[in-house]
Structure formats: C-alpha cells, structure tokens
Design brief:
The protein is mostly helical and about 180 residues long. It is built from six helices and three strands, in the order αααββαβαα. About 50% of the residues lie in helices and about 10% in strands. The relative contact order is 0.08.
Length: about 180
C-alpha cells in the first residue's frame, strides 16, 4: 500500500516538475508568436496574384494608435472604386453600358438599359451597388439617360484639389434628377 502511495506521489511530483518546465518554454513560444503577429513588424508584401487570397489583419492598442506620429488618413483609389461599381452593375442582364464617376463626395452613374429591366429596378440596382462600395456619406445619383455618359466621361481627368468642375457636376446631377422623357 505504501509503495503505491509513494509511486503516486513520485509520479505527481515528476509531472509537476516537467509541467512547470514546459510552461517556461510555452511562455517563450508565446512571446515569439506575439512578435510574429505584431503589425508593426515589417512583413513581406504578397505578390499581386496572392492579394485576393490574403486576409487583412491588424491589432493595435489605443496607446499605440495615439502615440504614432504618422498621419494615417484614409484614402481610396476612386478609379478602382468606379471600376468595381461599373463591373458589378454590368453583371446584371439588364444593362448594356455603364459610366461611373466617383468624386470625394458624389457617385454619378449613367447607364443604358437593354429593355429586360424596368426603370425602377435598374435605378435600384445601380444605387444599391454604389451604396455597397462607398462610405455612407456619399451622395449617389443614377440615371438611365445614356447621353449623360459623355458628360460624366468629360470629368474623368479632373482632380478634387481643383474644384473648377463643381458647376459641371451640379449640372449633371440636375439632369440626372429630371424625370425621364
């Protein structure tokens, strides 16, 4: 009986000693993992073909964000956003051609329908597509007046730091808001 008791105590002690030794090693491994996951570490950028397969992840504390001296203003490639909106709209059977302009405050979409889609559904698809891509504060204007595609295209080289195009945009928006003839 005493032999079994000493054996059980001995095995418990051995497990306790080896368990404590493993905790130190696990702690060191945890530090290594934290260093690998630290978003401040320089990581090799994936090749372009791998970007679609990558997940986006960052983790910061409030102190890390407040203590950085860099200005991290949010930017977006408006041409890429316009392409995304246009391509998504054209995946619907009722559209033949779509022109999209994205400014710093507005999204203008003019399109040509092929007759399979009624006016209200086409406008709904176009506006909801834009809403799903741009921030909520954007004003979205859509029209099935195909002649407006040329007007929208005329602004494609304009820049937001030169506000000379504001009158043209206002005129296009007025035309977009007019009832169909």
């Amino acid at each position: 009986m005493k032999t079994k008791l000493f054996t059980a105590i001995g095995l418990s002690g051995l497990l306790l000693i080896s368990g404590c030794g493993g905790d130190n090693n696990a702690g060191e491994q945890g530090i290594g993992i934290n260093e690998k996951l630290n978003p401040n570490n320089e990581m090799e950028q994936p090749a372009n073909e791998e970007l679609n397969e990558q997940l986006g992840y960052v983790r910061f504390s409030r102190d890390e964000v407040n203590n950085t001296q860099e200005d991290h203003a949010m930017t977006m490639d408006r041409t890429e956003v316009a392409q995304m909106i246009t391509r998504t709209i054209l995946r619907n059977e009722g559209f033949e051609e779509v022109a999209t302009l994205v400014t710093d405050q507005e999204v203008l979409i003019a399109y040509e329908r092929n007759g399979e889609l009624d006016t209200e559904n086409a406008a709904d698809i176009a506006s909801k597509t834009a809403m799903s891509v741009v921030p909520r504060y954007y004003n979205i204007h859509v029209s099935d007046n195909a002649s407006l595609m040329e007007d929208i295209q005329s602004l494609h080289n304009s820049r937001t730091d030169n506000r000379n195009y504001d009158n043209t945009i206002d005129q296009i928006i007025k035309q977009m808001n007019q009832p169909a003839e």
